Amino acid sequence: MAAQPGILHIVATPIGNLADTSERARQVLAGVDLILAEDTRHSSKLLSHFGIQTPLLALHEHNEDARTAALIQRLQRGEQFALISDAGTPLISDPGYRLVNAALAAGITLVPIPGPSAVITALSVAGQPTDRFVFEGYLPAKAGARQKRLAELAIEPRTLVFYESPHRLLECLDDMATIFGTQRPVTLAKELTKQFEQIQRGTFTDIRAWLLADARRLQGEFVLVVAGNTASRPADDPTPLLRLLLQHLPVKTATAIAQELTGQPRNSLYPLAVEIQRETSAD
To answer: What is the H or E stretch that residue 11 is in?
Structure first.
């Protein structure tokens, strides 16, 4: 008789405070045959805290493709696994999609064990509309690609949620101020649920000034919650936006995007774009 297929549990773990681990999560992690962890060194601290001795196996972006087939075979033989990430709910800007997708294709039962998520935690205290929102995860690391993506989001009316790394945070805020306009409300959530949790609200300029006032504020993990574009009035001076767009786009395309984002007339934006390009070419 063929063995009954096993179960893949998708287990949310704390984003900082270990007390946020649910009783159900602890029971599952203690009872499965194997825990698949993004970083076994990191996750071993969580397991040790609760006295859980289940074996760990690393599953991350660099080895997920190579390990998925063998893991599916073990699940088909009846084993049970738990998939966890370094923090929060697995697959949210974390590895695991390939394994989950393969498990579904193989008829493996998936069981979600819900719990903490930095996205939802930040939204709950941001003071911005949460009935509809867009989660963008990490923006592209390269400036040009990041600016292009922000330009695509500039007219998005829903609340925007981003993750950002400490070494790119100031550049990201500068790009957002240029593309979204300087007055958009933004909430910066730093080190959520941890000892040094801080939540700061204001404009992009306010948040930038707050970060620069103390170098320690640029350390940690960050979530940015940005108000959607609900204004019908034109944006501020379009010159910075056009300068940015013209670094990557021809004049006509840059003008069209700026017109859509700012609401300003083409017959004022196009000559400005031509002049900016001429100045740039002369440099």
So the answer is: strand 7-11
Distance CA 253, CA 203 (A): 28
The one-letter code for the residue type at 151 is: A
Is residue 137 within 8 Å of 164, Cβ to Cβ? no
Do the beta carbons of residue 14 and residue 117 sit within 8 Å?
no
Tell me: pLDDT of 235 over 60: no
Interatomic CA distance for residues 87 and 37, integer angstroms = 10
Q: Could you give the C-alpha distances from 216 to 46, 53, 224, 235, in angstroms and in order?
A: 26, 36, 18, 33
Element (H, E) at 204: helix 204-212
For residues 93 and 60, is the Cβ–Cβ distance under 8 A? no
Give yes or no for residue 83 having a pLDDT over 50. Answer: yes
Q: Is the pLDDT of residue 238 over 90?
A: no
Q: Which residues contact residue 250 at a Cβ distance below 8 angstroms, ignoring those fewer than 6 apart?
A: none
- Cα(83)–Cα(29) distance, rounded to whole angstroms? 9
CB 13 within 8 A of CB 88: yes
Amino acid at 276: I
Residue among 77, 80, 83, 43 nearest 59 (CA): 83
Structure confidence at residue 279 as a pLDDT band (50, 70, 90):
confident
This prediction has a pTM of 0.83
CA atoms within 13 A on the CB side of 152: 10
The β-bridge partners of 188 are: 200, 224
pLDDT at 61 over 80: yes
